[in-house]
């Protein structure tokens, strides 16, 4: 609903930012928040697995807490689309639930998955997001510690010498 857009815009006021969501109601809420704060951003209705942008368009893409809602194939499609819309050497910051690091987080995340779609969260809880990113052509690092089960992955678009 625009909270991340506001945070980014407040820290980097001269940066052009674009927010995307499948729900027009969420986009209206985000637009109102940005307007009330006197900040602007381009808001687009769309899906992560079918991004309405040209190839090599963005320098940075950020996704927060969306991937655990997606089915396996949709996750892979979204990652391929993000790779497509990133410029060469562009980066993708993916913040989402990851493989539990201790028994407490394993219990909590597995209980949470009952309410959020156990099959959709299976990949996240098995630690497969970095693998999916690598399969799409990204070089992946984990640039920091987790926060309440949220894993932060930085994926850099690597383009081979052949241009792929």
Question: How is this fold's topology laid out?
Answer:
Elements (H helix, E strand, L loop, with lengths): L2 H9 L6 E4 L2 H13 L5 E4 L12 E7 L7 H14 E12 L5 H14 L1 H8 L3 H7 L2 E4 L8 E8 L7
Parallel strand pairs: 1-2, 3-4
Antiparallel strand pairs: 4-6, 5-6
Helix pairs in contact: 4-5
Q: What would a concise description of this structure say?
A:
This protein is an alpha/beta fold and 164 residues long. The chain is built from 6 helices and 6 strands.
Which key phrases capture this entry?
164 residues; alpha/beta; 4-stranded mixed β-sheet; two-stranded parallel sheet; 6 strands; 24% strand; globular
Characterization of this structure:
With 164 residues, the chain is α/β, with parallel strands linked by helices. The chain contains six helices and six strands; from the N terminus they run H-E-H-E-E-H-E-H-H-H-E-E. The protein has helices spanning 3-11, 24-36, 72-85, 103-116, 118-125, 129-135; strands at residues 18-21, 42-45, 58-64, 86-97, 138-141, 150-157. The radius of gyration is 16 Å and the shape is globular. 24% of the residues are buried.
Distance between the termini: 35 Å
- Count of individual beta strands: 6
Structural class, from secondary structure content?
alpha/beta
- Helix proportion: 25-40%
Number of helices: 6
Mean pLDDT across residues: 89
Characterize the biggest β-sheet. 4 strands, mixed
Strand order within the widest beta sheet: 3-4-6-5
Q: What are the secondary-structure elements, in order, as H or E?
A: HEHEEHEHHHEE
* Low-pLDDT windows of residues: none
Apparent shape: globular
What value does the Rg take, in angstroms?
16 Å
Q: How large a portion of the residues is in β-strands, by DSSP E?
A: 15-25%
């Amino acid at each position: 609903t625009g909270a991340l857009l506001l945070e980014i815009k407040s820290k980097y006021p001269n940066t052009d930012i674009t927010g995307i969501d499948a729900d027009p109601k969420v986009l209206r809420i985000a637009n109102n928040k940005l307007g009330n704060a006197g900040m602007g951003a381009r808001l687009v209705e769309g899906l992560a697995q079918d991004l309405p942008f040209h190839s090599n368009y963005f320098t940075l893409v950020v996704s927060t807490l969306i991937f655990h809602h997606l089915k396996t194939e949709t996750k892979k499609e979204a990652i391929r689309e993000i790779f497509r819309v990133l410029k060469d050497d562009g980066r993708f910051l993916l913040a989402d639930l990851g493989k539990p690091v201790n028994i407490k987080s394993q219990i909590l995340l597995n209980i949470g998955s009952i309410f959020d779609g156990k099959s959709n969260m299976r990949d996240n809880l098995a630690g497969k997001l970095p693998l999916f990113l690598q399969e799409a052509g990204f070089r992946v690092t984990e640039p920091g510690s987790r926060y309440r089960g949220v894993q932060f992955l930085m994926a850099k678009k690597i383009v081979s010498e052949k241009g792929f």
